[in-house]
Structure formats: structure tokens, C-alpha cells
Design goal:
two-stranded antiparallel ribbon, Ribosomal Protein S7, 203 residues, 7 helices
Amino acid sequence: MPEFKILGKYDTKDIQVKDPGLVRYINTASPYLPHTGGRHTKKQFWKTEKVSIVERFINHIMRSGSGGRKIGGHVIRDGHATGKKMKAIKIFEKAMDMVEKRTGKNPIQVLVTAIENCAPREETTRISYGGIVYHQSVDCAPQRRVDIALRNLTLGAFSASYKNKRSIEECLADEIIMAYNYDMKSFAVSRKEEIERIARSSR
């Protein structure tokens, strides 16, 4: 079997996942074109085993709507990439080229490390007891940790590019690099710290 590079550029052969809790949940497979057409939806949690982390990241770029709290109460996505897989792939490709140029490292390794750095280890859940509702700290499942990290990385990039002259590709590259360096200016890293801080106070 020939060894493919993602989009013919990015090698994933030597990618390392340092967080032992996320090793099984970050698929570093290297399909030439990261597009499975939703075949993984046939069985629950197959996205972990069957879909590369690159495709999952691209799928989050296509997400529309809002989330978090930044602009007028919400972080807004313009929705221009919603449902447009090839456009999302091109955004990802340009952002990875910028990451590689600025860091001099394998951009897929930079992305994987960024995901590890902004994946929260614990969060809170609502407990109802006798009409009283309170928050209780709970461990965050590995699958959910990756999902939250992917969501916040793309959300931070879109919030930075909203009503800004800078392109989404530049903002996405900045967000990934800041998360890779564990910079608190990163939206994803700051959200992770906030989630864990609230969880610590709810133990």
C-alpha cells in the first residue's frame, strides 16, 4: 500500500499524541482527500476510529451559527463555508501553509498539539436534588475533550475574523499557533482554563 500525504502535502507518519488519554481518540490517518461523505455515521463513535482528525477539524470549519460569548452576547460565524466542503478544505490548506511557514514544523503535528493543549480535563454538570439545582465537577470524557477543542479552535478563528480585514485563513493559523504555544491569548486555551477553573470551584 502506498503511503499518502494529506492533500499531497502533509505527512502524518511521525505524528505523536503525547496525552495518553487522547491517543485512541485522535486518528492520525492520512487520506489523500479528507472526505468520507458521512459513512462514519452508521455507528456511534465511529468518527473516532474511521475519520482522521484533519477531516473532523475541517467539518468544524463548516459549522454555522453562534456560540460562546463575545460579540453581542455570541461569537458569530458568517456561515460562508457552511455545507461547502471544498471551500473548507481550501481554508484549512491555506492556514496549514501559513502555520508551516511561521513555525517551520509539520503543521499537522502543530494542530494535534494545539488540540491536546485546549482539551479540558474536567467540567461541570447540573445536578437537581429536591428542587435545588447546583453544579458538580465531573471528568470530561476523551471524545468530548477532542470535540470541545475542535469547536473552540474554529470558533476562536471565526470570532477573530468577524468584522475584520484579516482573512479566516490568517485567523485560523494564529489560533492554532497560539494554542500550540499554550498562549492565553488563544480563545480555545482561555476557554479551557475557564472551564477547568469553574470545575475546580465546584468540586
